[in-house]
Design a protein that fits this description.
The structure is a homodimer of 350-residue chains.
Chain A lengths: L9 H8 L3 H9 L6 H14 L5 H8 L4 E6 L5 H16 L3 E6 L5 H11 L5 E4 L18 E4 L8 E4 L2 H14 L5 E4 L12 H15 L9 E2 L6 H13 L6 E4 L2 H13 L9 E3 L16 E4 L1 H17 L7 E3 L2 E4 L16
Helix pairs in contact in A: 1-2, 1-3, 5-11, 7-8, 9-10
The first copy, chain A, binds a DNA duplex (16 and 16 nucleotides) through α2 and α4.
DNA sequence: TTGAAAGCGCTAACAT
DNA sequence: ATGTTAGCGCTTTCAA
């Protein structure tokens, strides 16, 4: 056997099949119709030479790569895993592949992705900015095709979102209906929310609306910032609440991971859920149904979420002149045991 | 302002700066040394034209993309999230970018990735095959640079692994030292393990060694296959164990997700952990420290794991003639409350 | 240190 | 239905 030489090109295939390179290209892409017998000859030649097309060359020629970028603040969370799974599957169904990035460590990373789009490494990107004012979409002149996921108030790009304000309100109202009166919010404090509200702000706003409308007093002490939306972050937030000797009988958490941490911290402190304190989460990751007790949380379909983002992006790559579109994914409150009681409350003075 | 026309190329930059395209290329890549003043002129021109290089063209020319593929069986698990995070960060540190794929749904997907390497869409790939005999590495003639992660017995490619047999043995021995005598294994059954052992088989083998060496009787009834290594899968596996009226006093689970499901199912059935049954996991995902009770599990450094895989891959992309290398990542058993007792055991006849 | 020319492998446009 | 030409934007010779 001859030594392994350079990869065969379409030209080599064409020579062997006795046709032109263009015909090989037609067979490969199905662009133009090819006579049955010609096609067979070409395919035989491709097989014989073990030919594969060079996608760099195709990308250079077409200006398209078939690759999309996908960026989340923190890839290590349960929600990230679930949504990444959804996006990769949806992309696969459409013949696209996903390039991954993580943005929380440095906001700079979002710019990297935009740059990669401009360098023709990717055709477009799906972003989940934590704070809009830091996000690239607010700072770059010519944006590539971008779909924002998350509850972001802006109208330059397509976006997929759930009505987090409504969901935050629903969670708090549910607590109130169970008899809770001192409801903490774990995940963000009003003091840190700026005008341009992102996910966090909307959930908090809904929570505040429910409190106010029920005639209860919003208390800044009950709003705990959780810098990292991880389990450890949630546990630390709850510990802080307990250490500050604050009275509360329910906790609305802004992600399930935070809620898992809160459950753990409450348990460690000897407080019972739901007998003493009610707890709710957000996202309905797989784990939420398996905590002790199982977690009441806001559910939405992660696959629909990913699919919608991908559909928007694909259509925008096709036609960049479309007006920005927004797709809302429905949500619902799933009531599990973590809120199935009238809570006695945590009162350090007792 | 002129209408937005085609992207500027290096040629445009060269003309504006009054140099040749090659000089622009030199400035950009730092390949050859460029006189300070020339460099400044070129950089000014790039800035003025808002120039970005076309990476498709560069890829075509260089035969390298700077992109690596990364494939896991199931992206939705907690372990997947953790390891994906590690790989993306390690890649970023090396100026590489990660393309993601999920392979459990159809083994075909592994071939897709290899194909993408051959089509010059990626420079190499990191794979985590579940069953080696189905894996592409056993079936393809000319492999691109590949690093296998997971406990796979083969020597065609580089690999990163932990000594799962030892770890499985350590977990079982720990149970025995606590007084357990009927130790179930959740995650795979000996009946389904073929000659070429993958992750599952090694963990099971270590477990069996510990059982045998302690003079206990290995019982196939205690070995439960869990087709999906998810929380739900673990819960279902444990339920099956309970429904079959099998006596046991400890459960070694082959992933943390399985263990979380098992904990939940035990709790639902009214069995206490660790008073009645001991439970251990594998991987030490964040959640393992926050279950009730916190989970004894096998820990290894996920960042080291991802970094090692990336280093191997990067060096192999540089030099494909290297002999296959194997890197073992150390592990340890982390003892938490889920095994802190001498278990009474679950006996349905009592 | 810089320039000129050639070509990586593919496909769009035009021609047959 | 198929062939020919040209060129996508970059970088690697080889010269100057």
């Amino acid at each position: 056997m001859a030594p392994r030489t350079a990869r065969p090109t379409m030209k080599d295939v064409a020579v062997l099949a006795g046709v032109s390179p263009k015909t090989v290209s037609n067979v490969l892409t199905g662009a133009a119709s090819v006579r049955e017998e010609t096609r067979r000859r070409v395919e035989a030649a491709m097989g014989e030479l073990d030919f594969v097309p060079n996608l760099s060359a195709r990308g250079l020629r077409n200006g398209r790569t078939g690759v999309i970028g996908f960026a989340l603040p923190d890839l290590a969370t349960a929600f990230s895993a679930s949504i990444t799974h959804a996006v990769v599957e949806a992309a696969h169904d459409r013949g696209l592949v996903v390039q991954l990035e993580e943005t929380a460590a440095e906001p700079q990373r979002e710019y990297d992705l935009v740059y990669r789009a401009r360098t023709h490494q990717i055709d477009g990107l799906i972003l989940n900015p934590v704070r809009l004012q830091d996000s690239v979409v607010e700072h770059v002149q010519h944006l590539p095709p971008v779909v924002l996921i998350g509850e972001v108030e802006q109208h330059r790009t397509d976006r997929v979102y759930i009505d987090s304000r409504h969901a935050g309100r629903a969670a708090a109202e549910h607590m109130i209906s169970r008899g809770a009166r001192r409801i903490a919010a774990l995940g963000g404090a009003a003091a840190n929310v700026t005008e341009k509200l992102a996910t966090l702000g909307q959930r908090l706003q809904g929570y505040l609306e429910a409190i106010t409308e029920a005639g209860l007093e919003p208390d800044p002490q009950l709003q705990m910032d959780v810098p990292e939306w991880s389990i450890a972050g949630g546990a630390a937030g709850m510990q802080a609440l307990l250490e500050r000797q604050i009275i509360f009988d329910a906790v609305v958490c802004f992600t399930d991971s935070i809620a898992l941490g809160a459950l753990h911290a409450l348990h460690t402190a000897g407080l019972r859920v739901p007998q003493d304190v009610l707890v709710s989460g957000f996202d309905d990751v797989e784990h939420a149904g398996f905590t002790c007790p199982p977690l009441t949380t806001v559910r939405f379909d992660h696959n629909d979420y990913g699919t919608a983002a991908l559909d928007l992006l694909a259509s925008r790559v096709e036609d960049r002149s479309l007006a920005p579109r927004a797709v809302e994914i429905p949500h619902e409150l799933v009531e599990r045991q973590s809120t199935q009681a009238a809570p006695l409350g945590h009162d350090p003075r007792r």
